[in-house]
Amino acid sequence: MSASISQRSLHRLPALDAVRVIGALAVIGHHVGFATGVNTGSGPWAGFFARLDIGVAIFFVLSGFLLYRPYAHAQATASRRPGAGRYLWRRAMRILPAYWVAVVVCLLAMPRDEAVTGADWTRHFTLTQIYEPNKLRDGLSQTWSLATEVAFYLLLPLLALALSSRRRAGRPLLILGCAAAVTGTWVALMGLGVLSLGLHTMWLPAYGLWFGAGMALATIHAALRNDYAPRWRFLDDLGAAPLACWAAAAAVLAIATTPIAGPRDLAEPTAAEFGLKMLLYAVFSVLLVLPIAFGPHTRTKAVLSSGTAHWLGTVSYGLFLWHPFALEWILVIGDIPDFNGDTLDVYLLTVAGGLLLAAVSYYVVERPFQRLSHRWPRPPRPRITESQRPVVAASAAS
């Protein structure tokens, strides 16, 4: 495999920054819709706002794609896999410092929070708040998805190792099939009453299909960029037609807004409703990501790669962390009753406040720790091939 192909196949995909923004804005819309009561009403937008939790599916599919992509690239080019220690260190520096700051502020400064216990601090600092019922504190309810995602981060090197010995031609279908089997089994156990629909819908196996869909896309992407697996070439063709993909995604979302995907409020869905929701959200997220990750460079990708989109993508993690804090204070300062506010006004104020706090989080906390993550551990030394050894020896002798 030539070096030029290897470098070309792992180039950055800047337009995906916009996908992070879409996911964050969708999650904010879901939370604002619930806080202002539009989710549970009978208005024309009730179903739409209720299903904006689809932003979580977008995040999970994108994480599966982006984080597994270096492993897929290594398998496609027969090159060294990313080191587990370095990968986990960088993930920790990317996620934990800003998260811990948000935990401290929310546990100390939320206006309507109850007395905080030592167990609350321990659970939230260790991202184990989802493993007991009703332990998410005010301002940190959205962190259930972060706890689930961190579980995926920890498992990914082992998954990559397990998949490294499989035939590369069938690897995407293997990944997708195993992921669907994990989620399907989990949903079946909930349907049988073995698992709880209130607690176990937050655990990683429930979302295996979403992460697996992203991993399968990463495997196909690496295959196409390294000039094999031509049977997947149709995905590049679909990538050249973003409007068609996004129209299909909109149709899937429209189906999900109906009661077949479960209740619109916090009432527990049935196992069948939850499983259908997982499937619909997975299809939507794949259709959203596909035209941005696959296909030729288009005007759409150029717009989504703009400086504004890049900056918003850069601070999107902080926006995810801080928007509930901003929302809560907006409701308190504005003296807005629960489930009875102007949804659009509250949404715009929450986005503005969340972006302000996200910018502070990025420049004060996230960026310094990301720089630290690149300085330690030391980058791996380049492997010396047999053809290079005589040259090295001769140079040392001289």
Describe this structure in words.
By secondary structure, this protein is an all-alpha fold. The chain has one domain (3-379). The chain contains 17 helices and no strands. It has helices at residues 3-9, 16-36, 46-50, 54-77, 84-109, 118-125, 143-163, 171-191, 208-225, 234-239, 242-256, 271-293, 299-304, 307-314, 316-333, 343-375, 389-397. Mean pLDDT is 88; it is low at 1-9 and 384-398.
Low-pLDDT stretches: 1-9, 384-398
Which shape, going by the Cα principal axes? globular
Number of helices: 17
Q: How much helical structure, as a percent, in the residues? A: 55-70%
- Radius of gyration over all CA atoms, rounded: 22 Å
Please provide the count of β strands: 0
What letter string, H or E per element, gives the SSE order? Answer: HHHHHHHHHHHHHHHHH
Strand content: under 5%
Overall domain count: 1
Mean pLDDT: 88
How would a crystallographer describe the biggest sheet?
Answer: none
Structural class: mainly alpha
- Amino-to-carboxy terminus distance: 33 Å
Give a quick summary of the entry.
With 398 residues, this protein is mainly alpha-helical. The protein has helices at 3-9, 16-36, 46-50, 54-77, 84-109, 118-125, 143-163, 171-191, 208-225, 234-239, 242-256, 271-293, 299-304, 307-314, 316-333, 343-375, 389-397.
Question: What is the topological layout?
Answer:
Layout: H1 3-9, H2 16-36, H3 46-50, H4 54-77, H5 84-109, H6 118-125, H7 143-163, H8 171-191, H9 208-225, H10 234-239, H11 242-256, H12 271-293, H13 299-304, H14 307-314, H15 316-333, H16 343-375, H17 389-397
Helix pairs in contact: 2-4, 2-14, 2-15, 2-16, 4-7, 4-9, 4-12, 5-15, 5-16, 8-9, 8-12, 9-12, 11-12, 15-16
